[in-house]
Specification:
The complex is a heterodimer.
Chain A lengths: L13 H5 L5 H7 L1 E5 L4 E3 L7 E7 L1 E6 L7 E7 L3 E2 L13 E4 L3 E7 H10 L1 H27 L2 H16 L15 H8 L3 H13 L3 E4 L2 E4 L2 H9 L4
Antiparallel strand pairs in A: 1-8, 2-7, 3-6, 3-8, 4-5, 4-7, 9-10
Chain B lengths: L11 H5 L2 H10 L1 E5 L4 E3 L7 E7 L2 E6 L5 E7 L4 E2 L13 E4 L3 E7 H10 L1 H27 L2 H16 L15 H8 L3 H13 L3 E4 L2 E4 L2 H8 L6
Antiparallel strand pairs in B: 1-8, 2-7, 3-6, 3-8, 4-5, 4-7, 9-10
Helix pairs in contact in B: 3-4, 5-6, 5-8, 6-7
Classes of the chains: A alpha+beta, B alpha+beta.
């Protein structure tokens, strides 16, 4: 049984938010929804772009292989967010790979339908433009991060990205809702596994974070943000 | 230039707005004539609108260190400028500086968004433009992280070509002469490495360099070295 966009309660989904009521049934008719287990690949680098994805629930990392070298995580995405927007434009080939971190349900909308929807709903085009603008900004700051930041700044910045992407636990508002593996944190920060371990230890010693097994608790978000922006130097 | 009888069809406003809306643009835009080597806006300045490059050439730079400025993009005729300012926090994350005498049109935010809402071609164009920019920005990131010197120089030449195109007067010439120091900044290599790679590419008859002018003799070979897919 297909879920209907017309009656969907996910009000932050860009389809729900920016499509007119007349358009929602068209999306419903053309979309397909797939369940993925954790660790599954949704699309891979080098594949042609056939459409756009919307995450119904789950958590996903978007990585680039960077040739033969280490993977770099470009962004982390969760429920009600758009996926696959990196492929749009240019030659319409995915420059990135999307992998699920936890079991996820993802909806696919074919590219021609997506284009038509954008052209028929001006609000959507403007929203997407703003969305890309933010992504571009994030991309620029990554450039900055890789070139000049200290290890501590990089890891702090990665932690802030995780907070921004997944937030905190509902009942426990300092514990990260989802802590990626240390290896994933390293590829998000653009540094090595060993450095992540070392810096996390340092941050714990300074009472900025607390490590609870695999999970991370943020004790001083403000200070962490300052470190991430390296404004204290 | 009056938007209503502008002949620059490369301009994204001209190409994507209905004729009746060009009058609106004409009414609200501010025209700016700026000579070479001047800053149009700087990192940290407040964003109040968006620019169109009517004619001329500009470089977009970002401070990567206290002393270092790295060129992250080049903009030519008819292109969008200052779009990195469109975001929640309304300050420019980059600076823009003219490379030659340029004419710019400035459209305030409010009017630009009215234009977007009323001209679906324009909003669609802007979306795809941003998608391209994002892809290019990520490519630049890769460039930074892992490419060899040859790849870095070749891909920066390709980007130069994609932005400015070939000269109308002379065969194979890139329509812009850039100083070696600026080119090497854009490619993220040192000046001496830049000269070395230029010599290497010239020996292979892929490019030719006469003073500051660059001629591309074998574009497919250059793109192959750059290893980035042909964009646009």
């Amino acid at each position: 049984m297909k879920r209907l966009c017309e009656t969907c309660k996910h009000h932050n989904c860009f389809i729900n938010k920016y499509c007119s009521e007349e358009w929602k049934p068209i999306i419903t008719f053309n979309k397909t929804t797939t369940d993925y287990p954790a660790g599954a690949t949704i699309f891979s680098e080098g594949e042609p772009v056939r459409g756009i994805y919307e995450i119904y629930y789950g958590k996903i990392k978007v990585v680039s292989s960077f040739g033969n070298k280490k993977d770099r995580i470009f962004c982390l995405l969760s429920q009600e967010q758009m996926l696959g927007f990196h492929g749009l434009g240019g030659n319409m080939i995915y420059p990135v790979t999307a992998i699920t971190l936890v079991p996820s349900q993802v909806t696919f909308i074919p590219i021609d339908i997506f284009y038509k929807a954008v052209k028929a709903n001006p609000g959507m085009a403007i929203f997407l433009m703003g969305y890309y603008a933010d992504q571009l900004r994030a991309s620029n700051s990554r450039l900055k991060m890789y070139s000049v930041m200290s290890a501590k700044g990089k890891v702090s910045s990665a932690l802030i990205t995780i907070v921004d992407s997944f937030g905190f636990e509902k009942q426990d508002n300092t514990l990260l809702n989802f802590t990626p593996s240390r290896k994933d944190i390293a590829s998000l920060a653009g540094t090595t596994y060993e450095t992540v371990i070392r810096v996390l230890g340092e941050l714990e010693k300074e009472n900025i974070i607390e490590l609870e097994g695999k999970s991370v608790r943020v004790l001083d978000l403000h200070l962490l943000k300052m470190l991430a922006e390296e404004t204290n130097h | 230039m009056d938007c209503r009888d502008c002949t620059n069809k490369k301009c994204y406003i001209n190409a994507n707005c209905l004729n009746s809306w060009l009058e609106f643009v004409e009414k609200y835009k501010t025209r700016k004539l700026i000579s070479a080597g001047l800053k149009l806006f700087s990192e940290g300045d407040l964003v109040t609108g968006i620019y169109v490059v009517c004619s001329g050439k500009l470089k977009i730079t970002m401070k990567t260190d206290k002393s270092d400025e790295s060129i992250i993009r080049l903009a030519g005729d008819g292109q969008v400028l200052g779009h990195r300012g469109i975001s929640k926090n309304m300050v420019y994350p980059i600076s823009a500086e003219t490379l030659e005498d340029s004419e710019l049109a400035f459209i305030p935010h409010e009017e630009f968004f009215t234009l977007l809402r009323q001209n679906i071609d324009l909003s669609f164009y802007m979306m795809m433009f941003f998608a391209d920019e994002l892809m290019r920005s990520e490519q630049k990131l890769r460039l930074h992280v892992l490419k060899s010197d040859n790849e870095k120089v070749a891909s920066s030449l390709c980007m130069l070509l994609d932005t400015f195109g070939y000269s109308k007067e002379e065969l194979n010439k890139i329509d812009f002469a850039m100083k070696l120091s600026e080119l090497s900044n854009f490619a993220e290599v040192s000046k001496s490495v830049m000269s070395k790679v230029f010599k290497y590419l010239s020996d292979l008859k892929i490019i030719e360099r006469v003073k500051d002018e660059i001629y591309i003799l074998n574009e497919p070979a250059l793109r192959k070295i750059a290893n980035i897919e042909e964009s646009l």
